[in-house]
Amino acid sequence: MQLVIVESPAKAKTIEKYLGSDYRVLASYGHVRDLPPKDGSVDPDDQFAMTWENYADKSKQLKAITDLAKTADRLILATDPDREGEAISWHVREVLRARKALPKEVERVTFNAITKATVTEAMKNPRELDDDLIDAYRARRALDYLVGFTLSPVLWRKLPGAKSAGRVQSVSLRLIVQREREIDVFKPQEYWSVTAEMEHDGTAFQARLTQFEGAKLDRLSIGNEGDALRAKQAVLDGNFSVQSVETKPAGRNPPPPFTTSTLQQEASRKLGFSADHTMRIAQGLYEDGAITYMRTDGVQMDGSAISAARLAVANRFDASYVPDKPRQYQSKAKNAQEAHEAIRPTDFSKDKAGGGDHARLYDLIFKRALASQMASARMERTTVEMADGTGRNILRATGQVVLFPGYLALYEEGADDTQDEDARRLPRMKEGDAPAKKKVDAEQHFTQPPPRFSEASLVKRMEELGIGRPSTYASIIKTLKDRAYVRIEKNRFFAEESGRLVTAFLERFFEKYVGYDYTAELEEELDDVSGGRAQWQSVLDAFWRDFKPRTNEVMEQQPSAITAELDTFLAPYLFPAKADGGDPRLCPNCGEGQLALRGGKFGAFIACSNYPECKYTRRFAQPGGEAEGDTGPSTLGVDPETNLPVERKSGRFGPYIQIGEGEARKMASIPKDIGELDLEWALKLLSLPRTIGVHPETGEPITAAIGRYGPYLKHAGKYARLTSTADVFETGMNAAVVKLAEAAAGGGRQQRGAQAPLKVLGNHPRTEAEIKLMEGRYGPYVTDGTTNATLPKSIEKDQLTLEEAASLIDARAAAAPATKKKKAPAKKPAAKKAPAAKDGEAKPAAAKKAPAKKAPAKKAAPKKAAPKKKAAAE
What's the order of all strands across the beta sheet hosting 2-6? Predict the structure, then answer.
C-alpha cells in the first residue's frame, strides 16, 4: 500500500479517485505542528534550534496518518508546490520519524493542478524533499517568532494598550500610517477649469481650454473665480475652428495571466473582494480542479495550456484575434514563488465553474488567462486643437479610436485612482472644421491629497517595495484589521490612533526594522536561502546580532522617557497648529496648563500639566475613547434616597455613572441609545435589575437588566433579549412572558426525525427521480433517494441548478463505491505526553513509550501553558 499525504480533505478525495486501489490518500489539514507560542521555542544560543509542538487539534489526524504509515510500503508527500507545502511535508516526515512509523521509501511529488492527467504524471516523477526550501521556511518562521516574541513584550511594557508587532505586519502598517500623515499635512489649492461641450457629425465630445489670451494653461493656472468667468466668456464669444489634428497609432498588449498579487488586486477592483476572501474562493476552485495553484509569482503558462488558450480564442472569435506567435511573459516580481506557472483554468474549453463568488472569480481568471494569448488592440490616439479668430484662445480635445479591439473584446484590466482622458472617443475631424459649441462651463476644483490605500493598491505597493510575499498579503491585512490598527471605510484603509501610536513607537525606537529597504533586503536574503545561495542560520545570526541589543536598550528606558519622545514625535498630529496662531498645547479647561502625552495603566492619553487641580484628559489610542476631552468627574445631581452625589465618570471601557464610594458604591455603564444623560436616567440605570413581577406559571420572578451583550429578560435561569434600553423599564408582565416563551421555543434543539430538504430541485432529467438539496453533517449535498453527492466548494447551494445537481449525482453513481473502513480497536489509555522535539532531533526512546504502570487518575496530562499574549506571526 502507498500512502499519499495532501493538505485538505477535498483535495484528498479528488486525488484518491485518480489513483489506483493500491493508494490511500489522507489529509494533514494544513500544518501539523508549529513553534509553541512561548519563550524559548527558538534558541539563538544553540544555532537557532527550534522546539516544535504538534497542534492539539491534529492529534486524531496524525494518529490516522501514523497508523497507515506503519503498514505502508511507500510514503508520497504531495502537499502544495510552494515553500509552505514543502514545510508541511517536512513536518509530516519528522513526526512519523519520531514515532518510528516512517516507511523506508519517502518521496515528494508536486502538481499545480488537480486533474487526472497532471496528478498521474506527477506520480511518475517523484523527487526528494528540497532542503533549501525547508531551510528558507525555518528561517522565516524563526525570524517572525524572534521579532514577535522579542518586540511585542517591549510594546506591552513601554506602550500600554499596544497589541503586537510583526516583521512584515508593522512595515505594512507604516505604509498606511504614512499615507494618513501625507493627508494630514496636505493643503488643498483652489483651481478652475473651463470646458466646452461640443458636437461634430452628431457625435458629442468635450474640449478643455489650454491657452487663454496667448498664455498656456496648466492645471493650476486659473486660481480664482474672476479669472475663470473671464475665460469662460472668451470661449462663449469665440468662433472656434479646428487648427490642427494630430493622430498617432497606438497599441495595447494584453496583461499576463494572474499571479497571487495581481489576482488579489483585480478581484478587489472588479469584484469588491478582500484579499482574504479572494484566496478562500480561489482555494475552493483549485481543490475542485477548476484552476491551477493560486499561490504563485509566475506569469507564464505551460506550453499545452498556451495551445489550448489559442485554440479557445480562435473558436470564440476568429483567426485575426490569435497572434502569430504564442505570447511569453517574464515575471518582474522581486520574490519569485516556487510554483512557477501563472493562475489559469485547467480546461480552456470550460468558461464557467461553480456558482456565486466562485463563478465570478473563475470568470475573471478565465478571461484574464485567455486574453493573455490574444492579439494586441490597435488604436489611434488623436489630439485636436481648435482656435478662435484671434488665435489667442485654444481648446484641446483628446481621445482615441479603437481600430481593432484585440484582447479588449474580452477583457480590460482595472486601474486604481486614475482618470484617462485619452480613453474618450472623438469624432473624425479635419483642419478647418467648426464643431458646434453647445455649452461652456467654468468649474471650481481643489487639489486632492493622495488617496488612501485600497486593498488592491496596498498589495500593489507592498509588491513594488518587495515587502513580504504575495502568499502572505491576505493574512497580513487581516491581522491589521483584527488588531484594530486600521479600519476600512468604503474599501479604503484608515489608520486608527492605536496604529499611529505603535507606528510612531517603532519608527522612533526601531527605525531600521520598519524600513522598507531593510525589509526588502531581508526578503532577498531569505530568497537566497531558498535558492541555496545562503545559509539560513547565518542570516538569522546577522539579524539577531543587532536586533537583540536594541530591544534590551529600549527595555531599559523609563516609560516616562519613551512617552516624552513620542509626545514630541506625534506633536504635529496631537497638537496641530491653530488657525489663529494660538498655543496648540494650551489646556482648553483651565486655560493655563500645557497638554502633553501621558501613559497610564490602560493606555495613552492627553493630560493637563496642572493635574490634579485640572483634571482635563483626552484619550488617545484607547478602545472606547471619545473625541472630546474629559474634564474629570461631573455631578449629575443628588440621589434623594441616600443624599449622595451621582457622578458621571470615564473608565477603561467608556463612560459610566457612580453613586457612593468604596465597597458600598454602585456603578452602571451608560448605554448609547438613551440620548442625553440626566439625573433621572442615571437613577434608573443604577436601580437595575428591575423586577417586573412573578411568572404566572412558575411563580419565579422575572427581571430586566442590561448585561454585556445588551438589555435582556431573565427568568428561572433562562434569558430573552430586549431591543433597547427603554424596553428594560417599559416591558410589562404580558410582554415579558411572551418574549421568554418565544426565546425558549427558538432556542430548543431540533427534534430528531426525517430532515426536511433545503430545496426540491425537480426530477432528474434522465432517471425522473426527485432530486433534493439537503444539509448534511459535513455540508450540503444532493440526493435522488439512492445516490448522495456532496456539493463542491465552488458551487454555492443557493445557486445550484437542476442540471448541475443531476451531473453530480451521475458522477457519484459512476464512481466506485467507497471502501468501508474497519472499525478501529478501542483506544488504550493515552501515554504521558513526551517533551516537544527540538528541530532536527528525534525524541528519546524513554520519552516516547508510556510507562507500563497506569498513572494515578488525579495526575492529568500537563496542559500546554498559554502565553500571556500571542504575538503576530507577520
Answer: 23-27, 2-6, 74-77, 105-108
**How many Å apart are CA 783 and CA 68, to the nearest integer?**
32
Report how far residue 261's alpha carbon sits from residue 263's, in angstroms, rounded to the nearest whole number: 5
State the Cα angle at 595 between 594 and 596, rounded to 5°: 120
Catalytic residues: 293
**Residues 425/400, Cβ–Cβ less than 8 Å:** yes
φ, ψ for residue 435 (rounded to 5)?
Answer: -60, 150
Q: Give me the sign of the Cα torsion angle 269, 274, 276, 282.
A: negative
Predicted pLDDT of residue 857: 47
Cα distance between residue 689 and residue 717, in whole Å: 15
Cα Rg of the chain (Å, integer): 34
Cα–Cα distance between 374 and 515 in angstroms, integer?
41
> Sign of the CA dihedral 172, 175, 176, 181?
positive
pLDDT of residue 851: 44
Closest CA to 158 of 550, 620, 547, 600: 600
3-state DSSP call for residue 412? Answer: coil
Collapsing DSSP to helix, strand or coil, 320 comes out as helix
CA distance 302 to 71: 37
What is d(CA 435, CA 433) in angstroms, rounded to the nearest whole number?
Answer: 6
Name residue 306's amino acid: I
Q: Which residues pair with 763 in a beta bridge?
A: 770
The number of angstroms, rounded, from the C-alpha of 140 to the middle of its chain's C-alpha atoms is 20
CB count within 10 Å of CB 305 equals 22
- Rounded-to-10 torsion of CA 426, 431, 432, 437: 20
What is the Cα–Cα distance from 591 to 608, expressed in whole angstroms?
10
What pLDDT sits at residue 870?
Answer: 42
Whether 282 and 343 have beta carbons less than 8 Å apart is answered as: yes
Checking 777-784 for CB contacts under 8 A at 24+ apart, the result is 782/808, 782/809, 783/809, 784/809
Q: How far is CA 833 from its chain centroid?
A: 36
SS3 track for 523-578: HHHHHHHHCCCCCHHHHHHHHHHHHHHHHHHHHCCCHHHHHHHHHHHCHHHHCCCC
For residue 616, the model assigns a pLDDT of 84
450 phi and psi, to 5 degrees?
A: -60, 140
**pLDDT below 70 — which residues of the chain?**
160-161, 332-339, 415-424, 622-634, 651-654, 746-756, 777-778, 793-794, 815-874
Give how far Cα 862 sits from Cα of 857, 859, 865, Å. 13, 8, 9
Phi-psi bin for 247: left (phi > 0), alpha (psi -120 to 50), beta?
beta
Rounded to 10 deg, the angle between the 131-158 and 83-98 helix axes is 100
Task: Say if CB 179 and CB 452 are below 8 A apart.
Answer: yes
Sheet-wide strand order for 595-600: 595-600, 603-608, 617-619
Q: Which of 29, 86, 93 is nearest to 61 (CA)?
A: 29
* Beta-bridge partner residues of 173: none
C-beta atoms surrounding 266 within 10 Å: 22
According to the model, what pLDDT value does residue 453 have? 94
**Rounded distance, CA 371 to CA 253, Å?**
10
For the record, the C-alpha cell of 821 comes out as: 473502513
